[in-house]
Amino acid sequence: MTGIRLFPSPRKATLKSGEWRPVSSGNCVKIALVDCDNFYVSCERVFQPRLRGRPVIVLSNNDGCVVARSPEAKALGIGMGVPFYQVKETVRQRRVAVFSSNYTLYGDMSRRVMETLAALAGDIEVYSIDEAFVRLPVSADAQYGRMIRETIGKHIGIPVTVGIGRTRTLAKVAVEYAKKNLPRRVCDLTAETTDTETILGGILVQDVWGIGPRIAEWLYQRNINTALDLRGIDDQLMRRRAGITGLRVVQELRGIPCVELRPLWMPRKGITSSRSFGTYVTSLGDLEESVATHATRAAEKLRQDNSVAGQLTVFITTNVYAKHPQYANTAHVPVIPATNADNELVRLAILGVRRIYREGFKYIKAGVTLTNITPASQRQLDMFARPDIDREDRLYRAVDRLNSRYGSGTIHPVACGIKQQWAMRRDFRSPRYTTCWYELPLARV
After folding, report:
1. Are 327 and 278 in contact (CB under 8 A)?
2. Could you tell me if 325 and 287 are in contact, meaning their C-beta atoms sit under 8 angstroms apart?
């Protein structure tokens, strides 16, 4: 990514034989969390301004459940994760705009946000598609956070909330407080004028980042109800019950950094491509097309990382919630020599699914996982059957460029099929405005 500075190998809180210690932050004692607001909905609104002020929801794979809601949709009582069919009447009566998940668009908009953020702040850790931690200078304050918010809003069109704290956990607390209480969506817990204790006292332990339901229940039983209460818990008690991870949460609530930022880019240890089918699949041919498609997508991600994979895993499964015969299986196929080439990975994926396919079942999902990932520059070649690596690399660079310009899947192995009647259902998908020439938005004057 142009303009993004990767900071040198960060120090980590390494643990040996039960040892725990906080990490040193040097002179950078402030961490910001930049969180995109209602990210999927915001992406849709960037290209359709008429949606502003109107309730909007985004659906999960196969248009099954609600996974993103605008504030207006939340006000109508549409819950997160609710099945779409349960809110269809509300959608019709209240003119709710509905979208299928457009992962291509969301991924590209996320990339743009992160590149802009990195240009503004330098050292960042991309935590998820819509969140990033930022290491700030000591002088940074709420005004710095507002500058980040205004710049991303102006350049990308995505609204963000910014929380600033001494640690990642406190930055997370600041974001949650800003979302609920501050119209300008920026909270600086390091400011002398901020009543941090009152803010912590208003956050239940179940809402503290890193505290799971069972630990939260255990804390409530001991009358530890808020983040402020948790900050004062005995270290040994917390460590015995919640381990090193729980102790880190407590220390970070006290302003002691326990986890350094990770570099913006780190090699992936595994890559999985998987989707539920739009309808039940029973034939081996459809399963072969599906795993070939997933192998192709995973190979593209490998090449993006300039990596190769030494192991491929194929899996298929029926719907465990349906009242018909159940079956699931997995095939592990070694990749020798390690590669990121579509043709070889597709061949092995089809080989794997043929091993585990059984007739008489209604399959709902298939996928491919690549592991044993290493840098392409370190791959070991078969001296007795050495492929033309340079020619292969040039070929797939050209394929990736064409797919990037004209849309994912424009050029693909024939094994992926043409009609793909098994493909995931996305009846309400918006255009891929930023990555496909044929779906660019039109400006009328």
Report:
1. no
2. no
Give pLDDT, residue 264: 57
Query: What whole-number distance in Å separates Cα of residue 345 and Cα of residue 192?
Result: 57
Amino acid at position 221, single letter: Q
- Both 137 and 43 in one domain: the answer is yes
Rounded CA-CA distance 177/135 in Å is: 20
Cβ neighbours of 38 (radius 10 Å): 20
Q: Indicate whether 238 and 321 sit together in one domain.
A: no
Q: What angle do CA 335, 407, 120 make, to 5 degrees?
A: 90
Q: Are residues 51 and 115 in the same domain?
A: yes
**CA-wise closest residue to 273 among 146, 178, 365:** 365
Residue 434 counted as domain residue: no
For residues 395 and 278, state if they share a domain.
yes
Whether 246 shows a pLDDT value over 90: the answer reads yes
Q: Which two tokens stand for residue 403?
A: 């797919």
Does residue 283 share a domain with residue 256?
no
Q: How far apart are CA 37 and CA 264, in angstroms?
A: 21
Residue 161 and residue 185 in contact, taking contact as beta carbons nearer than 8 Å: yes
CA distance 429 to 47: 13
Question: What average pLDDT does the segment 4-13 reach?
Answer: 33
Q: What is the DSSP string of 84-120?
A: HHHHHHHHHHTT-EEEE--HHHHHHHHHHHHHHHHHH
Partners of residue 314 on adjacent β-strands: 331, 368
pLDDT digits (tens, 9 = 90+) for 92-151: 999 999 999 998 899 999 999 999 999 988 788 899 999 999 998 888 899 999 999 999
| Structural domain range at position 234 | 195-266
Is residue 422 situated within a structural domain?
Answer: no
Put residue 241 in one of left, alpha, beta given phi > 0 → left and psi -120 to 50 → alpha: alpha
Contact 376, 340 (CB under 8 A): yes
Collect all residues with Cβ–Cβ distance below 8 Å to 425 and sequence separation of at least 6.
62, 63, 100, 278, 279
More confident residue, 87 or 15: 87
436 inside domain: no
Q: Please write the tens of the pLDDT for every residue from 56-84.
A: 999 998 898 999 999 999 999 999 999 99
Distance CA 27, CA 252 (A): 17
Taking each helix axis from N to C end, the angle separating 168-181 and 235-253, rounded to the nearest 10 degrees, works out to 60
Q: How many domains does the chain have?
A: 3
Q: How far is 318 from 281, CA to CA, in rounded Å?
A: 9
